[in-house]
Design a protein that fits this description.
Largest sheet: 5 strands, parallel
Helix content: 40-55%
EC number: 2.4.-.-
GO molecular function, one term: glycosyltransferase activity
Radius of gyration: 14 Å
Number of helices: 3
Low-confidence stretches: none
Strand content: 15-25%
Mean pLDDT: 85
Number of domains: 1
InterPro entries: Glyco_trans_4-like_N
Keywords: Glycosyltransferase, Transferase
CATH superfamily: Glycogen Phosphorylase B
Structural class: alpha/beta
Protein name: Glycosyltransferase
């Protein structure tokens, strides 16, 4: 079985810890695990098993300052996500974060791949 996690990046937050814990345990259980990130930090805060493959979509994402550059990068990254998912051909995609959930749900619908989208935002109503 192959599982792909998608997220914006792996930093020091709670969702990142959950992703790393899931990926590490699944890897130990002989599940083929991939982690597709929008961009990757030089050093991850949480350790990952060596068998967890990390795929970066856009190394220059943080350096885009102009509005149109950022918006066109979103379309390019969506296309890259579809290409990576075609190559990896996972049995399941697990997605975290609002923006990445949007990209991943649409890409998985196009490719007919099952997906679980985890949302961790707090919504406050007054």
């Amino acid at each position: 079985m192959k599982i792909v996690f998608t997220c914006n990046r792996i930093g020091a937050g709670g969702a990142e810890r959950v992703i790393c814990n899931f990926a590490n345990q699944m890897s130990k259980d002989e599940i083929d695990v991939r982690l597709i990130c929008l961009d990757v930090f030089e050093n991850f805060y949480y350790p990952l098993e060596p068998r967890v493959k990390i795929i970066e979509l856009d190394r220059d994402y943080k350096n885009r300052k102009k509005f149109l550059d950022r918006k066109s990068a979103g379309f390019r990254n969506f296309k890259r996500l579809i290409e990576k998912l075609k190559i990896e051909a996972p049995d399941l995609v697990i997605s975290f974060y609002t923006r990445q959930n949007s990209y991943s749900i649409l890409a998985c619908r196009i490719l007919n791949i099952p997906i679980v989208a985890a949302e961790r935002d707090h919504f406050f109503f007054i």
